[in-house]
Fold Outer membrane protein beta-barrel domain-containing protein.
Amino acid sequence: MYLGICWLAFWSASTAAAQEGNTLRISVFNESTSIPFTHVLNTPVHPGIQVGTDLNWKNGDHYRLYPSISVGYLFHRDLYQAVYLNLELGYDLQFDFGLNLKSAVGLGYLHTFNVQPEFQFEDGSYRQGKDRGNARLMPSLSLGWGYRLQPANPRSPEIFMMYQSWLEYPYSPGFIPLMTHTNLHLGINIHP
């Protein structure tokens, strides 16, 4: 099921990126339940992958403002595995020698599934139940940098690193209302 969702997401992002000026964005990341902006790289590693597209909107000589859409998958060994859909508004400050300072604010939908068996109390005993997952909101703030491999070419591939902090809401209603997370993304933007 997850492979099918990822393939559909990759195909959708590739189709949208094929439009004039749009980019295909692919990244791998490390997810952590942590307080944002206290650490950059957290251990143990909880891997994830994200595929999306940046839509062409407003470009200036030294800036770019763009909406983006992405889907992803993450695996947190002790908590859950999850799929998500994220919408962001990004702003890049671009320098002539290829460096881009990047920022984005976003809102997403996260659906989590337990990695351990789930049990339910029925008829006086516990039985293993089906995990239909849990729906969450996922507001985010991202900061980072990118480097265009061919600075003079507007369709140049760009490698990037983004530090994304995000909230999972509701996390555990009545106990812990929200959980803070961070992702460290390493990826590439290409023009298909």
Summary: The first strand starts at residue 23 and ends at 32. The chain is about 10% helix and 60% strand. The chain has a mean pLDDT of 87.
